[in-house]
Design brief:
The chain is α/β, with parallel strands linked by helices. The chain contains 14 helices and 19 strands. Helices cover 34% and strands 23% of the residues.
């Protein structure tokens, strides 16, 4: 098995000619820090809204090589979050977010089709399943919110037999289906978006790490790589690396998620009836998530990797043999017929977790620096919506996008380091123990319940 930090998707995607690193001084109307989906969709939205803007995009590594190109490629709207959205923000605000997030799924598919970009876009739905008694019905608050707000067709409860007809596993109970969801090959999508931006005249610089950002009354100056950029405004879309940015560091925790991909196993998929292309996740907090590929592989992930200390995103956050061994064991528990089949690639990456598990969009000081973080492992679709919101903020528009409840929400603050790391590690162990015992049908115990409930009492979410 190949085990590295970048994963199967980039190894599979067609190679792209590297963009240059920044050298010398650039001037721009907008400087975007971060070459993931959020930064690139922001650049795309700005180019379409204001074609004459001078846009510079700076990426520390290769565009898309961070979390955007390492995830499972689940392209979701936010109907499965409608219950918690309504709880946080009220029905009207929740509906506005979910409706626009749903539109993003459609727009990404249309964007790829219009450009004839082979990003493996497939709309086959997202199936959430219970793998323990404790998980049964966890989707119902959002199912009921969808019904209440007139979107019942967007989130459909299924009984255990209906789940088995879509994918048979001895671990599965009942579930729920989001028909609007799709899957993509995330690295292919990132590289297609990169190519489109370059074609549209956006200046893309790779291997250009921003060392400092200074905002003043007349603009922003970024020192990066071997040069600098002077711009009227900036957008910071750096995912988990936001934990290293002083104004944002107490707004998120950073955990890790790890994936593997099998050899092609079309015979197994046929035997278990998983031929419709649905992406699937279970109801755990530290979730298992899995999907198929066009050549019949299973890509399988687990959101329970170790936490990062501050913004240290290398090491076990990206490559963790111990966690990957668990991912392999969990894969075989859910799909025992894969015993003896080859695992070809394993990888990991950071997850930026906001206190309410929702993206956070805002502005730092004097309306010059705009930011987003907190996709919590679910950013392929919502990053498109975030890009449109950030573009509206840059253009100083007061529209339905800038009025979304995701913009400048009131949130709990997470503790500073080292308390964040130490406390999060304790809660992680307790939560893993709790969910493992639930899957085994064992009693969780009062101490585990107490520890697991501590973040909720502080208004903080630890898992994915």
């Amino acid at each position: 098995m190949r085990h590295d930090a970048y994963g199967y998707w980039f190894a599979e995607a067609p190679a792209a000619k590297p963009a240059p690193a920044l050298a010398g001084t650039e001037r721009a109307d907008v400087a975007i820090v971060g070459g993931g989906f959020a930064g690139m969709w922001t650049a795309w939205a700005l180019r379409k809204a204001a074609p004459d803007l001078r846009i510079v995009l700076l990426e520390a590594a290769q565009v898309g090589q961070g979390p955007s190109g390492r995830n499972a490629g689940f392209l979701n709207a936010m109907w499965h979050r409608l219950g918690s959205l309504a709880q946080h923000f009220g029905d009207a605000a929740a509906w506005a977010i979910a409706e626009l997030a749903g539109a993003s799924v459609e727009e990404i598919g249309a964007w790829a089709a219009a450009r004839e970009a082979d990003v493996w876009f497939r709309r086959a739905g997202h199936l959430e399943v219970a793998t323990s008694v404790a998980q049964e019905g966890r989707w119902m608050p959002s199912v009921e919110a969808c019904r209440r707000l007139g979107a019942g067709a967007q989130y459909l409860p299924l009984d255990a037999e209906q789940v088995r007809l879509r994918c048979e596993s001895p671990a599965f109970g009942s579930g729920a289906l989001m028909p609007q969801a799709a899957t993509v090959q995330p690295a292919r999508l990132a590289l297609a978006l990169r190519a489109a931006l370059i074609e549209e005249g956006v200046s893309v610089y790779e291997h250009t790490r921003v060392r400092s950002l200074h905002a003043g009354r007349t603009g922003v100056v970024l020192e990066a790589g071997g040069g600098s950029v002077a711009a009227a405004s900036a957008v910071v879309a750096i995912n988990a690396a936001a934990a290293g940015l002083l104004p944002l560091r107490n707004g998120l925790t950073v955990s890790s998620t790890h994936m593997l991909v099998t050899e092609p196993v079309p015979d197994v998929l046929e035997a278990i009836g998983w031929t419709g292309g649905e992406c699937i996740s279970d109801g755990r907090n530290y979730v298992h998530y899995f999907r198929t590929t066009p050549d019949g592989r299973i890509a399988f992930g687990f959101g329970g990797g170790r936490l990062a200390f501050g913004a240290r995103l290398g090491g076990h956050v990206a490559v963790d043999p111990r966690v990957l061994a668990r991912v392999r064991a969990d894969l075989l528990q859910i799909f025992p017929t894969l015993a003896g089949r080859r695992i070809e690639h394993g990888w990991g990456g950071p997850v930026d977790v906001s206190p309410n598990k929702l993206p956070v969009i805002g502005t730092i000081g004097r309306d010059r620096v705009h930011y987003v973080y907190g996709f919590t492992g679910n950013g392929v679709g919502p990053s498109h919506l975030a890009g449109k919101v950030l573009a509206s903020l840059v253009l100083d528009r007061r529209d339905e996008l800038t009025r979304l409840a995701l913009v400048e929400p009131q949130l709990a603050r997470v503790p500073p380091e080292p308390l964040r790391y130490l406390g999060g590690a304790v809660v992680r162990r307790a939560l893993l123990r709790k969910e493992d015992r639930e899957d085994a049908g064992l009693d969780v115990g009062p101490l585990n319940r107490f520890i697991v409930d501590m973040p909720r009492r502080l208004g903080i979410h630890i898992g994915r």
